[in-house]
C-alpha cells in the first residue's frame, strides 16, 4: 500500500473532491493529484500534516499515512548490497549450497559449531543468487553496538533523521520497505528465535538466510542446514587453496595429519593454512608438531582463534551445562549418554539430559540415535578445562566403562576360569556387539587410565570378560591390553587367564610363536605352583598351537592331547579336538584331519547358537575346508568353506568371514575356476578393508594379480600389483614395507 492510494481512500471516505481537499489543507490541487497518482511518493512533513488535519483522521490512520510518507521519501532508487567479499575458497559444501539455491523465498537456518564456515556458506549462496534477488542482498551481523534493525533501515536508505523513534515504528517502516521487493537477507550470528522473528524478510519474493550456533528449532517453516566438519578430501582442498597445491602434494602424508589434527574444522584449517602461507620455508611437519604439542594454543593467527570461538559458545550456557561440558574432557572416546554425563557431573539424569541438549543446541555436541557425540577440537577444548577436582568423576567414568565391558564381553562366551567373572548388569547381544565395536580401539587407554587410578579389580574383570570377543575381532591392540592388565592381576587364577590370552594373541594374531610359548609356560608354572588349574586346559591348547608354529609337531600333538584331558566343558573338548585335527593336517595326515573336523562339525551344528558356539563351528568348518584342499578335494572344500562363511555371517564375525571367502577363492583356483576365485578374492578384499586388516587386504590384491598372471592377462596383473603397492604405502608398517619391496621387485621384472 502506498501513500497515494491511502490518500485517495481517505479523501473519498470523507466525501471530498481534490479541490475540496486543496481548499481545506492549503495544498495545491496539482500536488494532491501527483501524490494520488504516485508521481510524488514522498510529501514533506508539513504537507503531510496539513492533509491529515484536513481529513480529520484518527491517530491510527494519521500514523499509517505518516509511515507511508516516510517510506516514500526513503525508498532507494535501485538495488542495495552490503555483503562481504565473495568467498573464493569455500570447499566441500556443494550439497548445502544446492539446498539454499533452490529457495526463492522463506527462511533457511544454517547452524553448527564455531568455525564450521556458516557465514562463508551464507555469503557464497547470496552471491550465487544475485540474479534471483535483483533488489539486493544484505548481510547484518547481529552482534554490535547499534541495534540490527536500525542498521537494516540504514542499508535500505533510511536517513537517520527519518528513523522512527520507537521500535514498533521502525518495524512497520521496515516491513513497508520490503513490500513488493525481491531481496535476500543474511542474518549472521542469531542467538534466539526472537531476533529472527523481528528481522526476517518475510515478504513474498524475499529470502532470509540465518546463521547460528544454535539450532533455533522454534522457527516454524524454516529449512535447517547443519554444518559439521569437512571430509578429509575437502579439508585437503581447503588447505591447498591457502598454501598451494604443490606444497600439499609434496608432503601429502603430513598434510593429512594436519587436517586430522585440525579436526576437519574450516576455521582451524584456515588458521593453519595462514600460518604456513606466511612462512613459506616451514616444512609442514613443523606446524604438525606444534599442533600436536600445543593444540588449540597453536591454532591462533591474527584475530582468528579456535579457542575463543568455543569459549563464546560455552559462555552463554547455564552453569550445569558448563559443568557437564568440562567433565566431558575426561571422556575416553567420543560418545556420551545422559546416564554417563549424570555420573560424571554428580547430577540426576534429567538434569544431565537437559545439559546435553543445551550443549547440542550450540553445536558443542552432536545428537545421534544413541545419545550425543563430541568430536575433534571441541573435545580438546573440553579436556583443557579439567583440573584436579575432577578426579572422582574420572574414576566414576572408568568404572562405568569397565563394568559395561564386563556386561557386554561375557555375552560372547567364557571358557575355563574366565567363567568366574560375572556381570552386574544386563544387555542384549546386539547392543553388546555395537558397544564393544565402538570401544575396542579405546580399550588400551581405558585400561591404562584405570590402572593408573588403582582400579585393578575392575581392569582384570573387564579384560578377562573380553576373551572371546577378542577372538572374534583379532587385532594387535590385544597384546597391549593383556600386557597392561597383567600388572593388575592380584590372584593366581587371574594371572593365568590373562597370560593364556596374551599367549593366544602372540601366536594367533602376531605370529610370534616363541614369545607365545614363553608366556604360556609361565602361566602353566603358575598354575602348578598355586593349584589353580581351572584354566590349564586352555593354556596347554594354545601352547600346542605355539609348538606347531615353531615346527615341533610331535610336541604339539602331545600337549594338545594333554589339553583335551584337562578340558572340563563339552564345548571346550570339541574345540580342542578340532585343534588336534589341524595338527594332523600339518603332519600330512589330511584324511585323519578331515575325519575329526567332520565329526566335530556335525556335533557342533546340532546345538551351536551362542556366539562362542558359532565361532567354534565356523572355525572347525574352515579347518575342514583347508584339510579337504590338502586332500585334493577342491569341490568339497568349497562346500565346507561356504558353510563356514554362512556361520561367520550369522555370528557377525566379519574378519573370519573374509578369511573363509579367501580360502574358498583358493579352493576354486585349485579346481581351475579362476572367475569364481576372482569373485571370492574380491569379496575377501572388501571384508579385510572394512575390518582395517591392511596386510590381508594387500595379500588379496596380490592373489588377484596371481590369478591374472595365470590367465596370461599381463595388464591386469600389473594393475593389481600397483594397487597393492599403493595400499602398502597407505598402511606403512614394517610388514607392509616388506611386502612393498617384494611387489616392486615383481614389477621390475615385467
Task: Reconstruct the topology from this structure.
Blueprint: H1 3-13, H2 18-25, H3 29-36, H4 45-55, H5 59-74, E1 80-81, H6 94-101, E2 106-112, H7 118-128, E3 136-141, H8 148-155, H9 167-178, E4 184-188, H10 193-199, E5 207-212, E6 223-227, H11 232-243, H12 245-250, H13 252-261, H14 266-277, H15 284-294, E7 300-301, E8 304-305, H16 306-315, H17 319-327, E9 335-336, H18 338-345, H19 349-361, E10 366-368, E11 371-373, H20 376-383, H21 391-409, H22 429-439, H23 443-452, H24 456-465, H25 467-472, H26 477-486, H27 492-509, H28 513-530, H29 536-549, H30 553-566, H31 570-586, H32 590-605, H33 611-630, H34 634-650, H35 654-670, H36 674-691, H37 694-711, H38 714-731, H39 734-749
Parallel strand pairs: 1-3, 2-5, 2-6, 3-4, 4-5
Antiparallel strand pairs: 7-8, 9-11, 10-11
Helix pairs in contact: 4-5, 5-9, 6-7, 8-9, 11-13, 11-14, 13-15, 17-18, 17-19, 18-19, 18-21, 21-22, 21-23, 21-24, 23-26, 24-26, 26-27, 27-28, 27-29, 28-29, 29-30, 30-31, 31-32, 31-33, 32-33, 33-34, 33-35, 34-35, 35-36, 36-37, 37-38, 38-39
Amino acid at each position: 500500500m502506498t501513500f497515494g492510494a491511502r490518500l485517495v481512500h481517505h479523501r473519498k471516505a470523507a466525501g471530498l473532491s481534490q479541490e475540496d481537499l486543496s481548499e481545506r489543507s492549503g495544498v495545491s490541487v496539482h500536488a494532491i493529484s501527483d501524490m494520488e497518482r504516485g508521481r510524488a511518493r514522498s510529501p514533506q512533513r508539513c504537507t503531510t500534516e496539513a492533509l491529515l488535519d484536513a481529513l480529520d483522521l484518527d491517530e491510527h490512520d494519521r500514523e499509517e499515512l505518516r509511515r507511508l510518507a516516510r517510506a516514500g521519501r526513503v525508498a532507494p532508487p535501485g538495488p542495495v548490497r552490503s555483503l562481504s567479499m565473495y568467498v573464493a575458497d569455500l570447499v566441500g559444501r556443494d550439497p548445502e549450497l544446492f539446498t539454499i539455491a533452490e529457495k526463492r523465498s522463506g527462511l533457511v537456518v544454517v547452524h553448527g559449531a564455531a568455525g564450521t564456515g556458516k557465514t562463508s556458506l551464507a555469503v557464497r549462496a547470496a552471491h550465487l543468487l544475485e540474479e534471483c534477488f535483483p533488489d539486493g542482498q544484505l548481510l547484518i551481523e547481529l552482534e554490535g553496538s547499534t541495534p540490527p534493525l536500525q542498521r537494516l533501515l540504514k542499508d535500505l536508505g533510511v536517513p537517520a533523521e527519518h528513523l522512527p523513534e520507537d521500535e514498533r515504528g521502525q518495524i512497520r517502516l521496515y516491513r513497508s520497505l520490503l513490500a513488493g521487493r525481491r531481496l535476500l537477507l543474511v542474518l549472521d550470528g542469531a542467538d534466539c528465535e526472537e531476533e529472527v522473528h523481528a528481522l526476517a524478510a518475510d515478504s513474498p519474493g524475499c529470502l532470509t538466510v540465518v546463521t547460528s550456533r544454535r539450532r533455533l528449532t522454534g522457527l516454524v517453516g524454516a529449512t535447517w542446514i547443519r554444518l559439521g566438519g569437512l571430509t578429509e578430501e575437502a579439508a585437503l582442498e581447503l588447505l591447498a587453496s591457502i598454501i598451494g597445491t604443490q606444497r600439499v602434494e609434496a608432503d601429502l602424508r603430513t598434510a593429512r595429519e594436519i587436517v586430522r589434527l585440525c579436526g576437519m574444522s574450516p576455521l582451524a584449517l584456515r588458521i593453519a593454512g595462514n600460518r604456513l602461507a606466511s612462512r613459506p620455508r616451514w616444512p609442514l611437519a613443523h606446524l604438525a608438531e606444534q599442533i600436536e604439542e600445543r593444540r588449540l594454543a597453536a591454532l591462533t593467527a591474527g584475530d582468528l582463534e579456535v579457542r575463543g570461538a568455543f569459549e563464546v559458545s560455552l559462555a552463554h550456557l547455564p552453569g550445569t551445562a558448563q559443568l557437564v561440558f568440562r567433565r566431558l574432557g575426561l571422556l575416553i572416546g567420543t560418545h556420551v549418554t545422559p546416564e554417563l554425563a549424570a555420573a560424571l557431573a554428580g547430577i540426576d539424569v534429567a538434569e544431565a539430559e537437559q545439559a546435553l541438549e543445551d550443549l547440542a543446541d550450540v553445536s558443542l555436541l552432536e545428537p545421534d540415535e544413541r545419545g550425543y557425540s563430541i568430536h575433534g577440537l571441541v573435545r580438546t577444548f573440553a579436556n583443557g578445562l579439567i583440573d584436579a577436582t575432577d578426579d572422582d568423576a574420572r574414576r566414576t567414568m572408568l568404572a562405568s566403562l569397565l563394568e559395561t565391558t564386563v556386561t557386554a564381553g561375557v555375552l560372547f562366551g567364557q571358557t575355563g576360569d574366565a567363567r568366574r567373572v560375572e556381570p552386574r548388569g544386563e544387555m542384549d547381544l546386539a547392543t553388546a556387539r555395537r558397544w564393544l565395536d565402538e570401544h575396542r580401539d579405546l580399550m588400551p587407554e581405558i585400561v591404562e587410565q584405570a590402572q593408573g587410578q588403582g582400579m585393578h579389580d575392575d581392569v582384570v574383570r573387564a579384560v578377562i570378560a573380553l576373551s572371546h570377543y577378542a577372538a572374534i575381532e583379532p587385532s594387535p591392540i590385544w597384546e597391549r591390553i593383556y600386557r597392561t592388565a597383567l600388572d593388575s592381576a592380584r590372584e593366581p587364577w587371574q594371572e593365568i587367564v590373562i597370560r593364556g590370552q596374551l599367549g593366544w594373541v602372540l601366536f594367533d594374531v602376531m605370529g610370534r610363536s616363541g614369545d607365545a610359548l614363553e608366556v604360556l609356560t609361565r602361566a602353566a608354572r603358575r598354575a602348578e605352583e598355586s593349584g589353580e588349574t581351572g584354566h590349564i586346559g586352555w593354556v596347554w591348547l594354545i601352547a600346542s598351537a605355539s609348538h606347531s608354529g615353531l615346527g615341533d609337531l610331535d610336541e604339539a600333538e602331545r600337549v594338545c592331547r594333554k589339553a583335551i584331558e584337562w578340558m572340563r566343558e563339552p564345548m571346550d573338548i570339541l574345540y580342542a579336538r578340532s585343534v588336534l585335527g589341524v595338527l594332523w593336517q600339518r603332519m600330512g595326515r589330511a584324511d585323519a584331519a578331515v575325519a575329526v573336523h567332520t565329526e566335530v562339525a556335525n556335533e557342533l551344528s546340532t546345538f551351536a547358537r551362542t556366539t562362542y558356539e558359532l565361532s567354534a563351528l565356523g572355525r572347525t568348518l574352515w579347518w575342514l575346508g583347508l584339510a579337504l584342499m590338502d586332500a585334493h578335494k577342491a569341490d568339497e572344500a568349497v562346500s565346507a568353506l561356504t558353510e563356514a562363511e554362512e556361520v561367520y555371517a550369522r555370528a557377525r564375525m566379519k574378519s573370519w568371514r573374509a578369511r573363509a571367502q579367501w580360502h574358498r577363492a583358493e579352493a576354486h583356483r585349485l579346481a581351475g575356476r579362476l572367475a569364481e576365485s576372482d569373485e571370492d578374492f574380491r569379496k575377501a578384499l572388501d571384508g579385510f578393508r572394512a575390518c582395517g586388516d591392511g596386510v590381508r587386504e594387500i595379500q588379496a590384491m596380490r592373489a588377484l594379480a596371481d590369478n591374472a598372471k595365470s590367465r596370461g592377462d599381463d595388464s591386469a596383473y600389473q594393475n593389481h600389483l600397483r594397487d597393492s603397492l599403493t595400499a602398502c604405502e597407505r598402511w606403512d608398517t614394517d610388514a607392509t614395507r616388506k611386502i612393498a619391496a617384494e611387489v616392486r621387485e615383481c614389477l621390475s621384472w615385467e
